[in-house]
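Entry 14. Two folds queued back to back today. First construct below, sequence then structure tokens.
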Amino acid sequence: MKKQDLLHYFDNALLEKLYGFCYARTKDSHEAQDLCSDIVYALMKAARSEEELESVYPFIWRVARNVYADFVERKGRHAKLFWDGDADEILPYVSDDDEEDDTEALLSAVYRRIAFLTKAYREVMILFYLDGLSTAEIAKRQSTSETAIRQRLFSARQKIRSEVKEMKEAYNKPIALENMDYVIWGTGNPGWGDPRNGFSRMFSKHVVRLCHKKPMSAAEIAEELNVPTVYVEEELEILRRGDNGKYGLLRRLDNGKYAVNFILFDRETIEKAQALYTEHLPMICDTIADYIEAHKEEYLSFPYLNKKADLNLILWQQISSIADCFSYTVKKILQTKYFEGIEPPSRPFSVYGYIDNGKHWGGGWDGVDAKNVWGFSKIHLDNIYITRIKAHFHCGLNVSNNVEIQLALRAIEGLALSSLSEDEKEYAAKAIAQGYLYREGDMLYTKILVSAMKDAANIFDVSNRLTNGYFEKEAEKIAQKLAVLIKKSVPDYLLSEWRFANNLANMPILDSVVEALIEKGILTPPENGIGAEGCWMYVEKA
């Protein structure tokens, strides 16, 4: 056979063996990718020859060993880690006008495999050439040295610059991607898999935006963004797989195109959706204020375990549930009148959001569990965080390692200062500053609200009664208009997630209600955003 026939032997199995050969002889995967790419390049150069070849695989491994020897020598001389020519220079070595028609297809397949093997370099090139980050910024993001980043960029620099120039001249489009961002919320258990993880590159954000406008193929996206298709192909698969391989920001349709896989509103749609709610804000806030005034004694009568629990702390604990009562009423009407029988997705975690329009609403509500800490068999802690309140903790907190919270547990019935060690007194001072404790004479008491575990199911009963007949008339108007907007803006395959669209529309309500109640003197915010407000726990003694 002729050496030109080498192209027929480049399949995934051979490349995996070559990569294994390289990985065993190099210090890490990036260096192995370098060496493997050099070997493939050398074999492709050899394929130009019309010489006869007695045996294919002995020849391949002989080339591999020779390239490795050169590789080691180059390392010793601190030379280039990667060949510095244009990848398109491969073409003259293996393609002549009189060659068979399948040569170009074979070459394309090999070139794509090279691109796959050098994905670490492609990541750096995207961040540098498309997202506009400096080598220092890329090094910090990838937890490596700036020298390493410069080495990965070095061999690709001429190729990328030439492609950028040619594309700009051909399409008259800028290569630098304009700045854009998203506001994406998650609900459920993010430990199962959060598709937002790693969604930070500007390139990724533009790909999602295009697939949100309409389903698109890799080639269509590449033309639209004016970047090489091979970069787009891998980005699409990363966005499709997500964090756990099961749930990503994109989905692949039967026709091979990619479409958005979560409720995503563009700037115009999110403003329309939220305007449906905000036009009713005066009524919502007045109704809530009147309701709180009429039910003060019921709020205060709940059997908290604290020595004292003032109404302000109770209302901050309740505020998210209070503010959600209006949207809950809208949701009930949407479910019964407009989306009847459409079951919600059963996945453990879901996301929804909008393309950033400069307005960030809402907040978060995190909870953690613990067992067998300071005489309590079960403990559950919650905290909310919004514009007026900073978070005390987030999901994943280990209570057994948090001394401030442990002091709050010990101080439920009072904790004598004299019983604390010097180190514990320092932690107690921090706990007071954070709002977990307060001092009364020589005793410390728990300031955040504490309830018995057996009473947890009833803690929001008073607030939840706001869903019974207080908002139906206005909620009906919103539900009718919102249903039309959802069916127009959300793909049919995502209609089961319509509840998240309602959540997005409701985003301005929580902060707006809080500000209205502060203005009316019903709520008092914590100084500097951190205090006992918005943090509470349930306990069960051992």
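Second construct, same run, same settings:
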Amino acid sequence: MMSSTTETIPTYDAIVIGAGFAGIYLVHKLRDELGLHVKAFERGAGVGGTWYWNRYPGARCDFESDYYSYSFNDEIQQEWDWTERYAPQPEILRYANYVADKLDVRRDIELNTTVERAVWDEASHTWTVSCDTGVTARARYLISGTGILSVPSTPKFEGMDTFKGKIYHTGDWPHEGVDFTGLRVGVIGTGSSAIQSIPLIAEEAAQLTVFQRTATFTVPAANRPVTENERRATKRSYAQLRAQARRSQTGVLIEQPLGPYGEVDERIVRGELERRWRGSGFGTTSVLSDNLRSIEANNYTSQFVRDKIHEIVDDPEVAKLLEPHDYPIGTKRLALDTNYYATYNRENVKLVSVRKTPIERFSQSGIVVGDTEYEFDAIVLATGFDAATGALDRIRFEGVDGRTLTDAWAEGAKSYLGLGVAGFPNFFTVTGPGCPAILTNVIASIEHHVEWIADYIEHMRAEGITRTEVTAEAQEAWVAHVAELAAMTLYPTAASWYMGANIPGKPRVFLAYLGGLHNYRDRCDKIAEDGYPGFVHASDGAPLASEQVAVGA
């Protein structure tokens, strides 16, 4: 028997953490298609997840809009009109809000509510969730949709609290925007968010100084407006495009490689590199089929991009500083830019390398590097994210025998398929560590995860199963498989956020399945067909209140 106190806790079939693209679809799928009683908690004041928080200048998606969008509802596909090839943040956020309204999910989402703790109860086979607002709720299933890039990584420089100007982080940008007109601005970092924002900040600022530790490979986005003819053609072909994308490596359709390095005429390779660079540099790294396996092939592609930097940047010394040499191209997330390298030709832009002489401290007036103090009115921290696991680490998950997720991941994040974690029953992670999401069009991965989880829950309810848990053996085998695939490539040679290398003290585990979205989908389908091997089931949990009444009542 449960205590009367426990009985007063609001009870649901499923609790969802987050209201980004995963959370929106989860609420709709579980509530409207499975008939479950669902509640989602979102720490922001609106839906949209990553695109709610990341409002820095120039923020936009690096996958084409036609693919970076939901495919599960054709009415939504036909009604929504994308205006640019690569949608900017405001447009993506409008899209998220449009879908939330279209599906009427807001009534089951509690905004401005941060989940702080989730505790598993073995007797009832339920999770009890506690939030910072004092709200407590209980559910049979707990599903995380917290996102891959939702927790900013904020450096702790000495004297930051003494700086008299403003400090901004690209991952937590003021929603009202920032006017840099006439200001002296410093930007720390040259990753993707810096590469997108620096050209626009430079247009406003009186002086912009960029502090670079590691040069980053970036290629031109070749962004442009979508024509009406293109829009109509895409809408006519959506069914075919989506089907092909699901059977692709990355969840988008890209041009195929010419072949391996050394087996294709170098003149043809060079010509194709030039063509893809101009059309959209994103395809540059896929000209050679062994670009991520052969260092010789990768060196050839890398040098092509380095040569482009020297073609664009007027000052040879600045161009030299911008040359990436620390990692093979493609082994860190490839950035797409608009006029990034050309921005360093502006008279009001200065590049400072902090590789050999790091930032020593902040002062009241700015930033001190070695013997030089740079004075600023505003400083932008473009220092990235605690990717893949950062949002989960913020929540105290207590699984079997009270063991926390933090303890379970003390040696690195482990999961089975990126969907579940041993020791944490009835807990599912959308785009969790060990799935292909971070190397794919993430919405394609989100849709697959949501649909697979929903099918599994439907199966369990039909069979009277109230408890499912990943086995330790299945988890270890999957982690080993993910590592084995990574070891066959150049990925582990880079100190990337794919391995948590950007976060001091974070255990190094490769966080992405490299077999491709198509193979991953096949693997998950086979697991479902075979009765979900890798999970153990039980059926003696106490019934929930929502299971004793009409579903959704």
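Quick look at the second one. The chain has 16 helices and 20 strands. The two ends are 24 Å apart (CA to CA).
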